[in-house]
From TrEMBL, chain B:
<protein>
    <submittedName>
        <fullName>Xanthine dehydrogenase family protein molybdopterin-binding subunit</fullName>
    </submittedName>
</protein>
<dbReference type="InterPro" id="IPR012368">
    <property type="entry name" value="OxRdtase_Mopterin-bd_su_IorB"/>
</dbReference>
<dbReference type="InterPro" id="IPR008274">
    <property type="entry name" value="AldOxase/xan_DH_MoCoBD1"/>
</dbReference>
<dbReference type="InterPro" id="IPR046867">
    <property type="entry name" value="AldOxase/xan_DH_MoCoBD2"/>
</dbReference>
<dbReference type="InterPro" id="IPR037165">
    <property type="entry name" value="AldOxase/xan_DH_Mopterin-bd_sf"/>
</dbReference>
<dbReference type="InterPro" id="IPR000674">
    <property type="entry name" value="Ald_Oxase/Xan_DH_a/b"/>
</dbReference>
<dbReference type="InterPro" id="IPR052516">
    <property type="entry name" value="N-heterocyclic_Hydroxylase"/>
</dbReference>
<dbReference type="Pfam" id="PF20256">
    <property type="entry name" value="MoCoBD_2"/>
</dbReference>
<dbReference type="InterPro" id="IPR006311">
    <property type="entry name" value="TAT_signal"/>
</dbReference>
<feature type="domain" description="Aldehyde oxidase/xanthine dehydrogenase a/b hammerhead">
    <location>
        <begin position="207"/>
        <end position="293"/>
    </location>
</feature>
<dbReference type="Pfam" id="PF02738">
    <property type="entry name" value="MoCoBD_1"/>
</dbReference>
Length: 167, 721
């Protein structure tokens, strides 16, 4: 384990499963999952914010759990199911997306893929969150525009929507 | 600049099929801007700006000329035109302009200027187009124009049950004379303006499809990561790229120059097949820098110099009455000294640019920027190419806050592409973004205030001691004069104090400095409105009543604002023990807003319980967006007040990423309630910035009310008061 920490200089053929699709890519095994998703799989919705798991802009789900793809080596994702913002729904039907639109959450929008993915994973685990639990779950996702007051409302609303119509 | 563009070229650029209706404004050169023009049949478009295009074979296109940074211009600017055409935004294609010469010099987002400078101007464009379409229909049908109505992209004559789409009418309308003063819509009939319209960019930002600068790719491009001198002002001596070249994927190692303000800093760029390889190659670089002695620079020592400089008289920024005489004679006097930090912009999207310098010397740029028009013009001069040979594709900006007013990162990418002979996307790391500036400068402030025998304020002095954004950007900066950019707002407050003398003391600085959301008001409002609170305390007066007592009817905007704050915050209602509330307001070039903040003592620290905000606008486009901007401004202002700010020692920035240059988290965000004063009229104030300055003083005034502790230096640790 932790073989990705070794200084490997060769390239590795890795199969990534992203949004239920398989991608064969040939990359430096130390490459963070973020850059593999963005530059090799070609999905740009996942964003680079800090490169050290401090801001959450790069959040994707790995087997349903939120991870910071900027600090997860691509090899660690090899046999896992990766979900990105692009795989959430075909037409914005996901209750979190619906709530995001209802409360007009994004300003610049750059951090929002990460915010949404964190909220999706959280609500799956906790469908009846209190306000404190929402804050605690979302606190690793930074937003420089300051959309936090609306994120609070939207996560709460998404929980209601999911209860009314499970996604 | 007077620019001619052939109609054919414009139609090609706008993918317009022709023979339709194009309405714009003249005056690209800045003279007589705003005269409406029918551009439909012009062989050449000379000094004009087309904004609405109705294509007989296509759709209706409206240009947004203000880059979208999160402030809502992608919805608000096109809405000004669409409203007058009775069009909802789903019937319109919104195109982001990219500094095209024919779209005018005001293609920028900054200064909270978009709506306050465009509101009527763009409405007239839509109104003129509508009038021409209605005239075309009424003439064709032989019915009076006033019997025709417009809705959903059609002209209707209900009595005869006839209708025609705008596209069907466009060719005929294009032959008509453009009305000089088209009749604007009665605001009571508005369907978009002043309404909570959903923004068209929100779905794109909720499913990952919004394209930011960092997301753009073109075939054959290389990725770049650039090593720059860690010490501001250092020069490149040499570099060893032998280890770098061994990193798989690395293609080239070349130098480039970063043009930021009046500075030119060299960098060494690693170009690779993918970004990760470029970053790995950069880590393997060995670069020798000549620090030019700047490694001796210490911000701590610099701050001490500012305190020393405060003893000098400085230059007069503004006077009223006879301050010296009134101050000397007053029975009650007080003095105080306030300090603020340098801060970073830290938009979530790090600086980046994709540039392609083509063989024919045409330059194509894809980037997140606030200033597409000025990029075209300044790059044209710098690189000796014609402005029309520079194409800027403005993407959604992942935050701006003033940082993207400065296209230093665009210069780097353009030069790298020229040297590499390929398209190059240069992406800054978060460390680059945090450490390389430009930063908002600090301001230090020395105050003197005096009360008369009746405890009324009779004399007031605000002396600002600071480096200057102007000096950092303008090589011809005159240090002997006052600097309005650094004394922003201090002489513009509506308070009636009979004797005032405000001063400025300039301090040299070699670090790149920049405007930051709400610019110098973000530091000066803190010191100014905190000191006014000190005067209120000295006078034994309630801080709200003290402020209101200095406002007469001439200054009804500020008075109205404070009265609204007093009402919505229940100012006179007692708070629980251990709580305190504070008030502050600030007026400056961008607008006017105020806060009441409630805090409580909690353990060793302070909890922000509630923020009430009032913003005064006159007229607004989207109340939901206004609320969002004020909420965001308050979150950003709390970060600036209580998070650590930028420190420089040994010439280098100490902070590097969000772990040591933190921004506010959701858990730290208090409940915020926003109230908007907008009763209509032509006097329109800005939205993006004014929400920010009042927060820090209102917060610190509240902390004083709760604890008796006066905070005179930002940032402060809110967990230890």
């Amino acid at each position: 384990m932790l073989n990705w920490c070794l200084q490997l200089s060769f390239m590795a053929a890795i199969t990534l499963t992203v949004n239920n699709k398989q991608y064969k890519i040939d990359v430096d095994p130390q490459m963070p999952l973020l850059w593999a998703i963005r530059d090799f799989v070609g999905l740009k919705g996942t964003k680079f914010g800090c490169g050290m798991a401090q801001c959450g802009a790069c959040t994707v789900l790995m087997d349903g759990n939120p991870v910071r793809s900027c600090s997860t080596p691509v090899t660690a994702a090899a046999n896992k199911k990766i979900s990105t913002i692009e795989g959430l729904s075909d037409n914005l039907e996901h209750p979190v997306q619906q709530a995001w639109i209802e409360f007009q959450v994004p300003q610049c929008g750059y951090c929002q893929s990460g915010q949404i993915m964190t909220a999706v994973a959280f609500l799956k685990k906790n469908p009846n969150p209190t306000e404190e639990q929402i804050d605690a779950a979302m606190q690793g996702n930074l937003c420089r525009c300051g959309t936090y007051p609306r994120i609070r409302k939207a996560v709460k609303r998404a929980a209601e929507l999911m209860k009314a119509k499970p996604f | 600049m007077r620019t001619t563009l052939s109609r054919r070229r414009f139609l090609r650029l706008s993918s317009f099929t022709g023979a339709g209706l194009i309405i714009g404004l003249n005056g690209v050169d800045g003279k007589a801007f705003g005269q409406l023009v029918n551009l439909s049949n012009d062989a050449e478009l000379v000094g004009v700006t087309p904004f609405v295009l109705i294509d007989p074979k296509g759709g209706i296109t409206i240009y947004n000329t203000k880059p979208e940074l999160g402030q809502g211009t992608f919805q608000s600017i096109p809405s000004l035109i669409a409203e007058e055409l009775d069009l909802t935004l789903d019937l319109v294609t919104i195109r982001q302009s990219g500094g095209q010469i024919e779209l005018g010099a005001d293609q920028f987002s900054g200064g909270s200027a978009s709506i306050r400078t465009s509101y009527t101007k763009y409405r007239k464009v839509g109104a003129a187009a509508r009038e021409m379409l209605v005239t075309a229909a009424s003439q064709a049908w032989g019915v009076p124009a006033q019997e025709c109505i417009t809705e959903n992209g059609k002209v209707l004559h209900k009595a005869s049950n006839r209708s025609a789409t705008y596209q069907e009418l466009a060719a005929t309308a294009a032959k008509l004379e453009v009305p000089k003063e088209p009749k604007l819509k009665d605001p009571s009939k508005f369907i978009l303006l002043g309404k909570r319209v959903k923004r068209p960019d929100i779905p794109l930002k909720s499913n990952g499809t919004a394209v930011f600068g960092i997301d753009v790719e073109v075939p054959g491009m290389l990725y770049a990561s650039i090593e720059r001198c860690p010490v501001f002002g250092g020069k490149l001596i040499s570099f060893d790229d032998s280890a770098t070249k061994k990193v798989k994927g690395v293609q080239q190692v070349i130098t480039c120059e970063r043009l930021i303000g009046k500075y030119r800093f060299e960098g060494v760029a690693v170009l690779a097949d993918n970004y990760w390889a470029a970053v790995q190659g950069r880590k393997a670089l060995k670069v020798k820098w000549d620090y030019q002695g700047y490694d001796k620079f210490s911000l701590t020592a610099y701050e001490q110099q500012l305190r020393e400089l405060a003893k000098s008289e400085g230059v007069v920024d503004h006077t009223k009455g006879d301050f010296d005489k009134a101050y000397a004679a007053a029975p009650t006097k007080l003095e105080a000294f306030y300090e603020t930090p340098m801060v970073s912009h830290s938009p979530m999207e790090p600086m980046n640019c994709l540039a392609h310098w083509k063989e024919n010397n045409q330059i194509e740029i894809w980037t997140s920027t606030q200033v597409p028009f000025s990029i075209k013009n300044s790059f044209s001069k710098e690189y000796k190419v014609k402005p029309e040979d520079i194409t800027v594709h403005v993407q959604f900006n992942g935050g701006g806050f003033g940082r993207r007013l400065y296209p230093d990162y665009v210069h780097e990418a353009v030069q790298l592409s020229k040297k590499a002979g390929k398209p190059v996307k240069a992406i800054w790391t978060r460390e680059d973004d945090t450490q390389q500036g430009p930063f908002r400068p600090m301001t230090f402030s020395a105050f003197k205030g005096a009360l008369d025998a009746n405890k009324k304020p009779v004399a007031f002095q605000h002396k600002v001691i600071s480096p200057s954004i102007g000096a950092a950007t303008n090589p011809n900066y005159d240090k002997t004069k006052t600097d309005g950019g650094m004394t922003e707002g201090i002489s513009e407050q509506a308070y009636e104090i009979p004797n005032m003398k405000n001063l400025y003391v300039h301090a040299d600085m070699h670090v790149p400095l920049a405007a930051w959301r709400a610019v110098t008001s973000t530091t000066l409002a803190f010191s100014h409105e905190s000191f006014l609170d000190e005067m209120a305390v000295k006078a034994g007066a309630d801080p709200m009543a003290f402020r209101l007592s200095m406002l007469d009817s001439k200054h009804s905007d500020t008075k109205r604002l404070l009265e609204k704050l007093k009402e919505v915050s229940n100012w006179d209602k007692p708070l629980p023990a251990g709580w305190g509330r504070g008030v502050a307001q600030w007026e400056f070039f961008a607008g006017l807003a105020g806060n009441v903040v409630e805090v409580s003592k909690k353990g060793d620290g302070i909890k922000i319980e509630k923020v009430y905000a009032v913003i005064d606008l006159g007229t607004m486009v989207n109340p939901d967006m206004v609320e969002a901007q004020v909420e965001g401004a308050i979150v950003m202002a709390i970060t600036a007040a209580i998070k650590n700010g930028i420190r420089i020692e040994n010439g280098k920035t100490i902070q590097s990423n969000f772990h040591n240059n933190p921004i506010l988290k959701i858990t730290e965000t208090p409940p915020i309630e926003v109230f908007i004063l907008a009763e209509g009229g032509e006097k329109i104030k800005g939205v993006g910035e004014p929400g920010l300055p009042p927060l820090a003083p209102a917060l610190c005034n509240a902390i004083f009310a709760a604890t008796g502790k006066r905070i005179r230096r930002l940032p402060f640790d809110i967990n230890k008061i």
